[in-house]
Amino acid sequence: MAGKRYKQLSEKIDLSKSYSVADASVFVKELKSAKFDETVEIALNLGVDPRHADQMIRGAVVLPHGTGKVVRVAVFAKGAKVDEAKNAGADIVGAEDLVEQIKAGNINFDIVVAAPDCMGLVGQVGRILGPKGLMPNPKTGTVTPDIAKAVSNVKGGQVNFRVDKKGNIHAGIGKVSFDSEKLAENIKAFVAAINRAKPSTAKGRYIKNAVLSLTMSPAIKFETQELLDIR
Length: 231
Description:
Blueprint: H1 2-10, E1 18-19, H2 21-27, E2 39-46, E3 58-62, E4 73-76, H3 80-88, E5 92-94, H4 96-103, E6 111-114, H5 119-124, H6 126-129, H7 147-156, E7 158-162, E8 168-175, H8 180-196, E9 207-214, E10 220-222, H9 224-228
Parallel strand pairs: 1-10, 4-5, 4-6
Antiparallel strand pairs: 2-8, 2-9, 3-7, 9-10
Helix pairs in contact: 2-8, 3-7
């Protein structure tokens, strides 16, 4: 049945057409077919070569309307930072005890934030967190002395992005239940962050292709020139 549904959705899409951000944000909602609140996903292919360190694009952006996803945050902190983390809404806060929880396989969180003085502890479980994409990093704002701000950001809709080996970046930028205007604003915020991260050494067209889709839907193409102009 899933294959039949996907085929029916594909028939709605004109593959020769490229959509503006505004139009894509409206049309993608018409592709809803699942019984759950599907994630709206953006994927971009960039004109960079990630094999070169100076073209490895990585960062984070706080979407104006959040992602619609409930995020569980674990924080490595000591002293006064413990209360800062808890007051900001962290779900789990610890130090040596958190290391032991992770070693025991208790990983019931989506993002890890760490105070700089706790990175030695984080290093003890790096081999566990790294492969799961959970290792905190200064470039995404998850290693910082401002624990409260970091927790607030990731709870409020921060999206981390990182280019893969083939120059692709993808992320969830909302839910199909969002109204189209909010989806459009989230898309523009995400693309603006990608444009700001453009390496000075990148040659040729920066955003080569870009598509929008739902969790269970085929993709629709963006007009890439409009995306390149977003700042």
